[in-house]
């Protein structure tokens, strides 16, 4: 049986299943990838879902132990999936089946994945959940450049903060529409807000995807990762700071540690970075930390 947990910061879901469920998922996606006329790139992003499913049941992804009070559940395995990627992968599955002979097993996997996404979107985006489901179900995998668009949409999605993802998620889904660029100016004139500029999306088209900060959320509000202001300094400044930290051992009790140590480095280098401020968006040239 497939189930899920939400990832932090509205990043996506941890898709969870036992070995049999994930083998079924791998088999179905792999078969559809090979036979579907809608999948142009046979080694592209759609096949990535089958690859991750295989890596999961081979114990190369997250391994989830059963609860102590319910050991009969057995070991399960998890795959971290970003929202834009998962939504497009699933929408490629159903339309492809209209062209193919398929079994009850294939339908069972497709329905299970669709049910998980519907429930997870509702849980993650609450009042926007129904609108997100409607926009996702309008994705057209027959559109020739739809997976090309995923490159820029995925990159900008990864760069957003938690608040930006929640605020802009519906517009991100809308931007997959083939008429989005043509209608953008008209929608601006009509007074719509939070629109993604086609020019901005183009800038992200060749960018690597930044770190998604997507560790699994627990019940309640997830705890934020401790923030160090050194993370905001340009790489050259970081290098200078680390060198200075090593040199300070002769005049202080030890090298700078934690937030206080980083703050001292920042102050002495004159970087002017505040602990209370984070950049609203990562640079399109930022190196990808987490690869999908």
TrEMBL record:
The name this protein goes by in its record: Uncharacterized protein
Record-linked InterPro entries: DUF6904
């Amino acid at each position: 049986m497939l189930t899920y947990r939400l990832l932090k910061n509205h990043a996506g879901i941890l898709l969870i299943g036992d070995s049999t469920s994930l083998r079924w998922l791998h088999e179905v996606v792999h078969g559809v990838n090979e036979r579907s006329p809608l999948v142009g790139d046979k080694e592209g992003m759609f096949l990535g879902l089958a690859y991750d499913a295989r890596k999961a049941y081979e114990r190369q992804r997250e391994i989830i132990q059963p609860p102590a009070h319910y050991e009969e559940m057995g070991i399960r395995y998890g795959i971290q999936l970003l929202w834009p990627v998962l939504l497009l992968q699933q929408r490629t599955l159903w339309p492809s089946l209209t062209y193919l002979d398929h079994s009850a097993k294939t339908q069972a996997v497709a329905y299970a994945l669709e049910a998980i996404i519907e429930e997870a979107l509702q849980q993650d985006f609450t009042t926007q959940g129904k609108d997100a489901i409607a926009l996702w179900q309008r994705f057209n995998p027959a559109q020739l450049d739809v997976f090309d668009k995923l490159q820029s949409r995925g990159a900008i999605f990864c760069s957003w903060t938690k608040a930006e993802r929640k605020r802009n998620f519906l517009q991100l889904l809308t931007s997959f529409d083939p008429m989005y660029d043509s209608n953008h100016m008209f929608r601006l004139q009509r007074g719509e807000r939070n629109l993604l500029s086609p020019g901005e999306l183009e800038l992200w088209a060749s960018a690597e995807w930044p770190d998604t900060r997507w560790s699994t959320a627990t019940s309640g509000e997830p705890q934020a990762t401790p923030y160090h202001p050194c993370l905001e300094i340009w790489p050259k400044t970081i290098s200078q700071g680390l060198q200075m930290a090593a040199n300070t051992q002769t005049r202080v009790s030890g090298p700078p540690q934690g937030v206080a140590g980083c703050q001292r480095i920042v102050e002495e280098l004159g970087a002017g970075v505040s602990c209370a401020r984070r950049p609203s968006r990562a640079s399109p040239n930022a190196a990808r930390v987490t690869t999908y």
